[in-house]
Amino acid sequence: MKLEGIVTFVQVAESGSLSEAARRMRISRSVVSERLAELERSLGATLLQRSTRKLSLTEDGSAFLERARRIVCEVRQAQTDLAERRGELTGPLRISAPVTFGRMHLGPALYGFLDQYPDIQLTLDLNDRRVDATSDGFDAIIRNGPIVDSFLVAWQLAPSPRYLVASPAYLKRNGAPKNLQELAEHRGIFYTNRGTADWRFVDGDQAYVVQGDRGLVLNNGDMMCDAAIAGLGIALLPAFIAGQALKEGKLQKIDVGIHAEPEFIYIGHPHGRKPSAKLRALAAWLKDAIGDPPYWDS
Questions:
Q1: How far is CA 281 from its chain centroid?
Q2: What's the pLDDT score for residue 150?
Q3: pTM for the full model?
């Protein structure tokens, strides 16, 4: 059983396509097919069910994939450890991050990092869904909000205050709520992953949840901000999304006499896995690039 066959199988399983796996690995499709066939012969099992339209894992393929991922991960980690012993930061680094934060702030910070460390092969997956860093094959995930994953070791990158905001036109038309009771009577713009119970506030040790009128539910922070600017309701947005619109006067903060529940931006790596030097370097770089307080909340 050859390691290159195992690596190829993992790439095919994760990409869902022989052609896409070939593109990612920079080899021909025929080489991918040959490696898979050799791996299946060595295992005495069929791992993939192929058809003209679809490629899917067999039962044996699903069972083997989990171990194959661990094998590939261990080999890559061994390569990284040897490079780090020589004082080098090199090799693959796979990160997941939210779409809006990645587009607005993470991308520009990463360009300088990759220029500083050109031998790091970074893969950035922008996705708002809650990923499992271990099973999805990520070295780390970047998230905004509360830490709800017990399998992650989280490093705080920056505080992430959230503000109630609405457009001047909306507030002129509907008035600004002055307390939580009045806030509950207003149309809300909510984030799909958090739901309508996301308006959470704290006063000392006392926590409050406000259920606003479900005016609009979206799965993207950019669209939430745009909807608030369009006057469609009130949104509770992170400063890194709403900051520019607030500076330009397109949105206004709403003071209801209480602060939103504190949150922060963090980078988390799987529990039980030693973070690599390049991951620690990335975390330090991002923390410095964001600043304290964050540059978008100045």
A1: 18
A2: 65
A3: 0.69
